[in-house]
Design brief:
Blueprint: E1 2-7, E2 10-13, E3 18-26, E4 33-39, E5 46-52, E6 57-59, E7 68-73, E8 78-83, E9 92-99, E10 116-117, E11 121-126
Parallel strand pairs: 2-11
Antiparallel strand pairs: 1-3, 3-8, 4-5, 4-9, 5-6, 7-8, 9-10, 9-11
């Protein structure tokens, strides 16, 4: 069993930055991948970025277009999503997701790949 707790969302103005955190607890010692997804009102949940327990990472180049960076702190089992120069179209609920897969592959976008999800954190960017 794994628990994920997101934090760091909020209401910001366009051009501001935010850093989201996803703290994992439970069976994390055997290796994992943690990803960030987001879901805007009326839209499907979309993949943002993922990072493995070894530090390999990937991101959706269509989301954030270089403005988002994923990182992790192994000592804290916490993954971060640094979001810079936020735009109103970044408004969404941001979720972190966990899979026991250990290798970043080409199915990072596949929701069914992930075993556990956080409750989500709202990011609202005003113009």
């Amino acid at each position: 069993q794994v628990q994920l707790v997101e934090s760091g969302g909020g209401l910001v103005q366009a051009g501001d930055s935010l850093t989201l955190s996803c703290a994992a607890s439970g069976r994390t010692s055997i290796g994992y991948i943690i990803a960030w997804f987001r879901q805007a009102p009326g839209k499907e949940r979309e993949f943002v970025a993922a990072i493995s327990w070894r530090g390999d990472s990937t991101r959706n180049e269509d989301v954030g277009k270089g403005r988002f960076t994923i990182s992790k702190d192994n000592a804290k089992d916490t993954v971060y999503l640094q979001m810079n120069t936020l735009k109103p179209e970044d408004t969404a609920v941001y979720y972190c997701a966990f899979t026991f897969d250990r290798t970043i592959g080409d199915r990072n976008w596949d929701l069914s790949r992930y075993n556990y999800w956080g409750q989500g954190t709202q990011v609202t960017v005003s113009s």
